[in-house]
Amino acid sequence: MIRLEGICVDFGGLRAIDHVSFDVGAGAITGLIGPNGAGKTTAFNVIAGAVRPTAGRVLFDGEDITGLKPYQRAQRGLARTFQIPHEFYRLTVLENLMAAASAPEGENVFNVVFRRRSFGAEERAIYDHARETIRFLELDHVRDEKAGNLSGGQKKLVELGRALMRDPKIILLDEIGAGINRTLLSKLADKISALNEEKGLTFCLIEHDLDYVSRLCSHVLVMAQGELLTEGTVDAVRNDERVIEAYFGGGKYEAHL
Ligand SMILES: Nc1ncnc2c1ncn2[C@@H]1O[C@H](COP(=O)(O)OP(=O)(O)OP(=O)(O)O)[C@@H](O)[C@H]1O
């Protein structure tokens, strides 16, 4: 579904990504792992269009999207969540989801959220979709709560809900599990699996917890120091000496901790 071909990213004198090529297969849940500073978030930014690569191409379902803006990629079915949730903290959970369904640039937010009395058919459909998504994510009890008042884990669920509102083909999840409690983490994994199995939604996720990755991902990409170190099943990469070295130190790929 997504293919990176020979991607390089330079930040001033720092090469954050060095000739990286990989595929994120359609219908799969692919993990992107690696020590701190490996280039994982930068790779997501390249896929989403937030960072322009110095070299290389990004393909989405075979189409070269390297020159497209983030909202154009979103229109084609690419969604992402952020390490730090991007919710509108003064809007309620319901309003946050409805706002996410409008133009990715946010230009319709006020129409959709604040003119509820003059609902047209389109707004009604957005409202129903938001309610259905909230139900699916089991957020009904906080539906009218301001997003800024939610727990860290609930904000992550809202973040996933906002991504789902645009009916994406693929969602990039950037450390969606970080800092949330075990119960919510498990619920989140169930929701991701259900979306993948029942709706065929493709995921690529950055995650530091390898047990979590092994629960969800059939295929794992390992990055270290801006390069693709290896890829394969979780068990295979876990036992790969280069991966162990990258995480636990020594040699070229010493982890940046
Ligand atoms: N906007 C930026 N400007 C300058 N350097 C950057 C920028 N973004 C990332 N970097 C650098 O690029 C390298 C890769 O960073 P990146 O955030 O992609 O790593 P990561 O694998 O996601 O790390 P982590 O697991 O800690 O989030 C790091 O050395 C980082 O300091």
CATH class of the largest domain: Alpha Beta
Number of domains: 2
Question: In angstroms, what is the radius of gyration?
Answer: 19 Å
Within CATH, the superfamily of the largest domain carries the name P-loop containing nucleotide triphosphate hydrolases
Roughly how many Å apart are the termini? 32 Å
Low-confidence stretches: 251-257
Mean model confidence by pLDDT:
88
The major β-sheet equals:
6 strands, mixed
* CATH architecture descriptor name of the largest domain: 3-Layer(aba) Sandwich
Structural class: alpha/beta
Portion of residues in helices? 25-40%
CATH domain fold name of the largest domain? Rossmann fold
State the helix count.
10
Succession of helices and strands:
EEEHEEHEHHHHEHEHEEHH
Distinct ligands, ions and cofactors found in the model = adenosine-5'-triphosphate
**Which outline best applies?**
globular
Number of strands: 10
Strand order of the largest sheet: 6-7-8-3-9-10
Kindly estimate the percentage of residues that lie in beta strands according to DSSP: 15-25%
Pfam families: ABC_tran, BCA_ABC_TP_C
InterPro entries: AAA+_ATPase, ABC_AA/LPS_Transport, ABC_transporter-like_ATP-bd, ABC_transporter-like_CS, BCA_ABC_TP_C, P-loop_NTPase
GO molecular function: ATP binding
Family: Belongs to the ABC transporter superfamily.
